[in-house]
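Risk register update: the risk of archive-format incompatibility is retired. Evidence:
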Amino acid sequence: MTGFRWCMKDCYSGKALPEACMVFVAVKLVSPSSSFTHSSASGQSVMGMPRRALLCVLLLVIHRRAAGGVLYRALEEQPPNTLIGSLAADQGLPDSGHLYKLEIGTPYLRVDGKTGDIFTTEVPIDRENLKDCRNSHRGDPCFLEFEVSITDLNQNLSPRLIEGRIEVQDINDNTPQFPSPILTLYVPESTHQGTLFSIPLANDRDSGRNGVVDYALTAGPDAAAIFSLQVAEDRGEKLPQLIVLGNLDREQKDSYDLSIKVVDGGIPPRYSSALLRVIVTDANDNTPRFEKSMYEADLFENSAMGQSVLQVKAADSDIGLNGEIEYTLHQVTDPVQKLLRIDHSTGIIYVKGLVDREEVSGLKFYVVARDKGSTPKSSKVYVSINVKDQNDNAPMVEIRGIGLVTHQDGIANISEDMPIGTAVALVQVSDRDEGENAVVTCVVAGDVPFQLRPASDSPNDNKRKYFLQTTTPLDYERVKDYEVEVVAVDSGNPALSSTNSLKVQVQDVNDNSPIFSPALLEVDFAEENQLGEKVLDVVATDADSGTNSELIYSIISDSSTKGLFEINPVTGEVRARSQLDREHRDRYEFHVTASDKGIPSHRGTAVVVVRVLDRNDNDPKFMLSGYSFSVLENMPKLSPVGMVTVIDADTGQNAQVHLSVEPDNGKFVIQNGTGTILSSMSLDREKESTYTFRLKAVDNGDPPRSSYVGVTINVLDENDNAPYVTKPSNASYKCLSPSTSPESRVEKVEAEDIDAGPNAELVFSISGGNPHNLFRISPTDGEISLAKELAPRHSGLHRLVVKVSDKGKPPRHAVSLVHIYVNETLNNITLLESLVGHSLNTPLDLDIAGDPEYSHASQHSNILYGSIAGIAGVIVVIIVVVVIQHKLQKETKSGYQAGKKETKDLYAPKQGPKSSKGKKWKKGKAPKPAKPLEEDEEVEQASLQKSLNFSHDRINDSPRIHLPLNYSPGSPDLGRHYRSNSPLPSIQLQPQSPSASNKHQVVQDLPVANSFVGAGDDNSTGSDQYSDYSYKTNPTKYNHKQVGGNFLSFL
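Archived output:
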């Protein structure tokens, strides 16, 4: 069993030939009495020979039997590129440095030139249609022959020829078919039970197990009890027979229709059916019987037509027509039908056509003998005719190329430098005859340096192969060609012969390469060329002659030059296929080659350098499509504000660029060397915050090319402007009722700053005049609101010093005065305005916040009320009211009296009757000082107070308040309504104009249009309706800017 596994392993791996495996299996299947199945404990066989050694001997015998060629097996109808076998791997042949070439086997096969692998092609191998298998008998193997030559590419040796066969194995690709879809069978009504009748056979083009393996009969209820089917077997062929099981009565039923089915043994099986019609006839008792069970005969090929081959005889015991026999050929193949005929009466078989053994070596068929009864009976016999050979074919000499040597029109070309023994052709000599008639002798006729050497070890006398090889060195200069004649003679009697010739042309050796002179070619070529424009001509020479000196020019390009240049392969003229651009690449280098037409071809190489010359084909190009620069204001003249970069892809003068500003309004200039933009003036953002212009770049080409780019200069802000208050004016006031609830809005300070960004973001704060913390201001919007509830002591005028600061670094600020008059009513506007006027002349470090004598007046009033409370309270009150009212009306009518001493209590309204009048201030005594201010606030207040200088002068004895404010004509003025009836002396505000060096030192500009004067209890209106006083104004610093209207300036 160990030896069995060893052999089967080799069989499956392909190391052992299939025949060896089959023989070994056969040995294992012999009877137990065979010595091959008995061995001792030591593993020895009967004759003392080790079992494995015995098996190896057996395999060697099988191998020698198959040593005549390579044998592969393959199924038919395999798809393309199916591997059949590998010559290098299976036969131990070289797998490198050799060329495998298929000599015979097309179009069904192809061979890999390197490995010798044999593959199928697009043309399928159909076993049933192969020429050598088409007329083979059932069960005979089908072979496809092939030849492969092996040429050593490293050495100039003659090729080696490998012959082989492929056994094409059948697949189930054909369905069995009956000769007709309706089969008719005549059965006499007197037929006894158990009688058999032959049914026509079905034919299957497949073979072996894929052929017909079984028949089946299907009958109706009336016929199932009468007929059945029996399948016999003769020489491996299935024979269907109809069995009569019951009695037939023609008068009752004269025919039966049955269905017969034929099935093959393929996987999956194929099948077909036919109608079997059984016709019941009158009695015909006996069937014809042949004298022999089979007939055999020999027939020489080329026998004359009409020659008899053999006679078949059959006898029938019946009499009359039932005993007369007629002979026919049954289910014959095409060759039998074409070559033979049979006499229907005598059974003699005659030659009908030309018999050629080389086409058909044997004829096998059946002859049917049928009587002439009304219900004929028949039988058949097997006939085999062997066609014998005659020497009617002369040897055939076929000369074809081998390996790398190809033939065309009967001419072989060989180089003069080939070594002795080089094969120039494969000569195949064959004879279609057999036996001695096919033994052929082959020689080379004449005195030529060639001979025949056997190319194959195959012992096939009918087909021999030889290499036609050289015997001496060839010299092209001495003999340029040879006519080689090959003669073949067979051994027949009489002998037949044939010849074939081959013309061998000796070729010159191509031993010279083309040469370029010089090997380096340089040329100048301008860019922007036309397509196909000539660049240069290249010329090479070759010392060889003929085709070896005919040159073909080509360009070897790398990826950077591919497709840019082309060369005329005949003339060597190089042209540009594409337009060159020097800016993309200014130098190209590639190789040109000149190859001769020799085999093998030689070539020479030269280097071509193309220098691309510049043209002014590019505009100057700014690096950006637009420029935007930001620069601080107040920079000195000719300060750089930005830089641009411009390039020109050209070279030389074409790349020299000149820059200029458009329009040239003198505000900016540009340096051509650096591209730096300079300002021709000091920039002031408040005058102009953005400048826009174009830069022009012009090159020095001919003609020049130019380009433009837009430039934007954004002037950044510096904190060079202090905030200015637009509302309320310093001389305006706001009336506030003592009953006003906390958190009520009192006034709103509005201010502006002509700077930008954080420099214009304002912060509001109360820096003075709020000792009781009655008021607070929103730091963001300047809204002043009442912080807490008002008390009686808070009545009177309050002056708030409001500071407005920006967020610049360093910050700038302005100071504004906000007057708030706390009282129930506003009956004496003149008094209130005089209070405001005194406030403007009061130092800012002094608080003006309500009635300063309120505490003393309260003490006296309490004593007075206490003394007369019980007696005349009501009367005194009435008198006091009448007196006060009368006095007020008198003062209102009389106005200001010259020389009358002014009362010091100007900032508080009168509280009650004369008897309750508070204590007056002492002369020269300042009011109660306000809460100390910070140092910076003191400086600011001193600056503001310096600007509030009151002068007492009389103009036509009419006191006036002259406010020389910087308002435009038509603006309202706080003092315009003060005429001769004004209770105050004339005062004039002396503003200080800022110097030219301190142009940004403006503390406050107040439009008087936003100031208010009392016109009722809680309302304020402008004072334009009371005065037509005219005055001149000072012009503002910025005209037509965001600072609108006219302003009061405090420095």
